[in-house]
Amino acid sequence: RGIRSSRQLRAAAYLATGQPAKALEEIESVLSRKQNSGTVGHEIAQLTAARAYAAEGDKGRAREMYQELLAAWKNADPGLPLVEKARAEYAKLQ
What is the pLDDT of residue 9? Predict the structure, then answer.
């Protein structure tokens, strides 16, 4: 649990400092653990990865990550800021 959290934190820091490749290195290990699929931590990792792929210019992979994430959040309460922001970021990739 702590490892995932620290990896996600490092990934977010790399992304915030304009280092999306390093962010992806950190986040891939979180995403590769399928047993965590469907957890909030996994979904936040998907969002971080989607943002990192977009920052790298890999729109196709970014779209895939956003699609998976938004499918998981399809029943989220309307108006949740994080969900709305993810939807807006996804829309910019279209």
Answer: 92
Summarize pLDDT for 75-92 with one digit per residue, the tens. Answer: 998 889 999 999 999 999
Calpha distance 34→11 (Å, rounded): 19
Residue whose entry in the numeric block shows the structure tokens 């996994």: 42
Give whole-number Cα distances, 92 to 24, 51, 75, 85, 87, in Å.
Answer: 20, 12, 22, 11, 9
In this structure, are residues 7 and 29 in contact, taking their beta carbons and an 8 Å threshold? yes
List the end-to-end C-alpha distance of the chain, in Å, as a whole number: 35
The per-residue DSSP string of 4-38 comes to HHHHHHHHHHHHHTT-HHHHHHHHHHHHT-GGGTT
